[in-house]
UniProtKB/TrEMBL annotation:
<dbReference type="InterPro" id="IPR003488">
    <property type="entry name" value="DprA"/>
</dbReference>
<dbReference type="InterPro" id="IPR036388">
    <property type="entry name" value="WH-like_DNA-bd_sf"/>
</dbReference>
<dbReference type="InterPro" id="IPR057666">
    <property type="entry name" value="DrpA_SLOG"/>
</dbReference>
<dbReference type="Pfam" id="PF17782">
    <property type="entry name" value="WHD_DprA"/>
</dbReference>
<protein>
    <submittedName>
        <fullName>DNA-protecting protein DprA</fullName>
    </submittedName>
</protein>
<comment type="similarity">
    <text>Belongs to the DprA/Smf family.</text>
</comment>
<feature type="domain" description="Smf/DprA SLOG">
    <location>
        <begin position="80"/>
        <end position="288"/>
    </location>
</feature>
<dbReference type="InterPro" id="IPR041614">
    <property type="entry name" value="DprA_WH"/>
</dbReference>
<dbReference type="GO" id="GO:0009294">
    <property type="term" value="P:DNA-mediated transformation"/>
</dbReference>
<feature type="domain" description="DprA winged helix">
    <location>
        <begin position="302"/>
        <end position="357"/>
    </location>
</feature>
<dbReference type="Pfam" id="PF02481">
    <property type="entry name" value="DNA_processg_A"/>
</dbReference>
Length: 369
């Protein structure tokens, strides 16, 4: 419903970057509209706000004309999609705290498409830039959408590599989609919008504040089947993204670097901890069970797509009879998030079918991946 969409959007204006709080409000009041219409007293008693915070919200809410904001988005060619919309990215749906909605400039990847995040240092070495551009290009030529954060350094290099290969790329921003940050990426941002999408959970006009970036990193990893770290210091936003990817049940991979370089410490440590070592896109594609590296050139096709350990566990307990997701979680002994992620990827690979009521079963004959 258009009205519901407006209220979802309104809450993102009032609580930018506050996905958990917004979901909590909607759960307590029953709908975003009901929460929006709540009195200051109800926001305290039911919503869990402090009186001062509730009064501030009520005041800001009274100053916000949602229809006017929606019209402004349309004027700027910004699309707003909610969690309830069919074009909301499926991979993002299953993370712990998905954004209620996304502000989008450009076109999101088609459902079921392959997505891989390539992230790294804002202060890369020439080696890192070269590798990121090469990796972005190889993935794009394989039909994979390259996801990154349009930051200086590795992120920008990965986007450029994908664009140079004529592929699709998505930039997730820690500011509004109408804000160019860093400023020198104005042309890059325009090219990304033309060949893919620039997205954010922060409303238009939001500045690039420091706390926004760890928040947006969960979207970078959440959009992607795997996250590849190219270069990163020991304490780096790219390593935060890698940790988030692991929490979301996604693959983490890393490009090794010289032991003498501080920028190699992050990825080298990830490899020590078990991350897949990446020398080229072929390593990424193999890990994800993707058998086509370049259009028209196929690698040897296995009997079925490559499966992660979690996917094998879930697939192994399924049969042709539909099983409730709660039973799958109980029988596998895996975390709920791991099971949901595995089921989604098994669906993408054509090995599992979902039925109404969140029931899952093996396909009789796995479809070709």
């Amino acid at each position: 419903m258009v009205d519901e969409k407006i209220y979802w959007m309104g809450w993102q204006y009032l609580l930018p970057g506050g996905a958990k709080r917004i979901w909590n409000l909607v759960e307590r009041f029953g709908s975003p509209q009901a929460a929006w219409m709540a009195s200051g007293e109800a926001l305290v008693t039911r919503g869990g706000f402090e009186p001062r915070g509730a009064a501030h919200l009520v005041r800001r809410r009274s100053e916000l004309d949602l229809q006017e904001e929606l019209a402004r988005l349309q004027e700027q060619n910004i699309t707003y999609i909610t969690f309830e919309d069919s074009d909301y990215p499926q991979l993002l749906r299953v993370i712990f705290d998905p954004p209620p909605g996304l502000f989008v400039r450009g076109t999101l990847p088609p459902p079921g498409g392959q997505t891989v995040a390539v992230v790294g240092s804002r202060r890369p070495t020439p080696y890192g830039v070269t590798v990121a551009e090469k990796l972005g290009g190889e993935l794009a030529r394989a039909g994979v959408t390259v996801v990154s954060g349009m930051a200086r350094g590795i992120d920008s290099a990965a986007h450029r590599g994908a664009l140079a290969a004529g592929g699709r790329t998505v930039a997730v921003l820690g500011c509004g989609v109408d804000v160019v940050y860093p400023r020198e990426n104005k042309r890059l941002m325009e090219d990304i919008i033309e060949a893919g999408a620039v997205i954010s959970e922060f409303p238009p006009g939001s500045p690039p504040e420091a706390w926004h970036f760890p928040v947006r990193n969960r979207i970078i990893s959440g959009l992607s089947r795997a996250t590849v770290v190219v270069e990163a210091a020991e304490k780096s936003g790219a390593l935060i993204t890698a940790d988030l990817a692991l929490d979301q049940g996604r693959d983490v991979m890393a490009v090794p670097g010289p032991v003498t370089s501080p920028q190699s410490r992050g990825p080298n440590q990830l490899i020590k901890q078990g991350a897949r070592l990446v020398e080229s896109a072929a390593d990424v594609l193999e890990e994800l069970g993707i058998t086509c590296l370049f259009p028209g050139k196929h690698l040897q096709s296995p009997a079925m797509p490559g499966l992660t350990a979690g996917e094998e566990t879930v697939y192994g307990m399924l049969s042709g009879d539909p099983v409730p997701v709660d039973i799958i979680i109980e029988n596998t002994g895996l975390a709920a998030q791991q099971v949901l992620s595995a089921l989604m990827f098994l669906e993408v690979k054509g090995l599992v079918r979902q039925f109404p009521g969140r029931l899952y079963a093996r396909r009789e004959k796995p479809s070709r991946f």
